Amino acid sequence: MQNISEIEELIKLISRLPGLGPKSAKRIVLKLINNRDELVKPLAKALAEVYKNISRCKICGLLKSSSVECSYDNCSIVGKKYDKICVVENISDQWSIESSSIYQGYFHILGGTISSVGQKKEDLLIHSLVERVNKDNIEEVILATSATVEGQTTAYYVQDSLKNTKVKITKLAQGLPVGGEIESLDDGTLFSAFKNRSKLNSNSD
Ligand SMILES: [Zn+2]
């Protein structure tokens, strides 16, 4: 292979993407170079747009375009009123649950788990979750964190943070394998986990 620094750099960057190693990165770069107008140009434009306009909402953690502003009592990203919030670790968890169409309601993306490397409680969107519950007539919070030690520790901490609210707290149960990450579950497992969610507090019914 020739040593062209621009190409080397691109291969290096692409191989950092999930599921791709240097070999697939090289194939992708070749495909791009051979399709400059059809792929490189629109891709560069789409990347620039995402970089400029898309960010995570500081209240609910969802991805949003810069023109949308959420408030504690109104999630303008969803644009609908619900009385449930499903709490997940990451955006990929939200996407998995959404695509299974098991659940109708708001999402709240914590942004990780408490014990992930370098992740502190303060980095997670927990305070804003309590605010949403207090200000948006929420009746149920569903804890859909992974069945890993980190996921369960985080769920416990979220539950504890909500103890002064009157909200019903439930947690995904049967069907969720120990060590299972939400994003890697199939629809059937997710469905059963949602259906069999268990109640964690005794505040209300
Ligand atoms: Zn939001």
Globular, elongated, flat, extended or rod-shaped: what is the shape?
elongated
Radius of gyration: 20 Å
CATH topology label of the largest domain: Dna Topoisomerase Vi A Subunit, Chain: A, domain 2
Strand line-up across the major sheet: 4-3-5-6-7
Regarding quaternary structure, what we see is: single chain
Q: Secondary structure elements and their pairing?
A:
Layout: H1 5-14, H2 22-34, H3 36-53, E1 54-56, E2 63-65, E3 84-88, H4 91-99, E4 106-109, H5 127-135, E5 140-143, H6 149-161, E6 168-171, H7 187-195, E7 198-199
Parallel strand pairs: 3-4, 3-5, 5-6
Antiparallel strand pairs: 1-2, 6-7
Helix pairs in contact: 1-2
Bound molecules: zinc ion.
Zinc ion binds at residues 57, 59-60, 62, 70, 75, 77.
